[in-house]
Each structure stands twice: as structure tokens, then as C-alpha cells.
Design brief:
Blueprint: H1 7-19, E1 25-30, E2 33-38, E3 41-46, E4 52-55, H2 58-67, E5 71-75, E6 78-86, H3 93-112
Antiparallel strand pairs: 1-2, 2-3, 3-4, 4-6, 5-6
């Protein structure tokens, strides 16, 4: 089981506190990892390698991967076309939080249908 006190988990908890103010957002799990749901659908979760994994529109996912700011997510042998992962940088917690926050907001808008 993951140590709930890791720096990456602390950043996710900080994001969760912000998102939980919005209607229909709740904490949930994806693959036994903590995450955020809107209207019952996961839009962001913490991967086992301390990366934030978010769901974005397919074109936007390709764009952030091409820019080098995120990585494709592969489950088994299948690359997930709408899911990307953002790295955790232990040397830049503020920068990591800012990048994660921006991506989580995009994911929330996409999954909630607001985009």
C-alpha cells in the first residue's frame, strides 16, 4: 500500500481540497490509487510512480505529449489516447503543483462536459 504521506500525495491532497469546493467533485480511487471524480467519473488520479494522471480531449493529450510536458499512459500493451501523466519533481514542488493544478482543471472541465 502506498504511504499516504509522500510529497506527491500531499500535492494531490492540496488539489483535492481546492476541487472539493466544486459541486459533484469527490475523492475516489482508480486502480487503488487516490483520485478525483466529477459526477462519478475519474478525471485525475495519482499513479503508482507519483505521476498525476489526467483525462484530456484526445487532441489536447497529443499536444501536451508532443510538447514534452506530459507522457502517454500505457496500461498493459494499450496506450490510452485520452490519458496523460505529468511527472512529480521533488526539487520543484511549487512548479509541480502549478502544472498539476492546470492539468487537473483541464481534465475536470473535459470530464464534466464544461469544455
Amino acid at each position: 500500500m502506498r504511504d499516504p504521506t509522500t510529497p506527491a500525495r500531499a500535492l494531490l491532497d492540496e488539489l483535492a481540497a481546492e476541487f472539493l469546493r466544486a459541486p459533484d467533485v469527490e475523492v475516489g480511487t482508480m486502480f487503488r490509487s487516490p483520485g478525483l471524480r466529477v459526477a462519478g467519473k475519474i478525471f485525475a488520479f495519482l499513479g503508482h510512480d507519483d505521476r498525476l494522471i489526467v483525462k484530456l480531449p484526445r487532441a489536447r493529450a497529443r499536444e501536451v505529449v508532443a510538447a514534452g510536458t506530459a507522457h502517454e499512459v500505457t496500461m498493459g500493451s494499450r496506450t490510452m489516447k485520452e490519458w496523460v501523466s505529468l511527472p512529480f519533481d521533488d526539487d520543484d514542488l511549487d512548479g509541480t503543483l502549478a502544472r498539476w493544478r492546470d492539468a487537473a482543471h483541464e481534465a475536470h472541465e473535459f470530464v464534466s462536459g464544461a469544455a
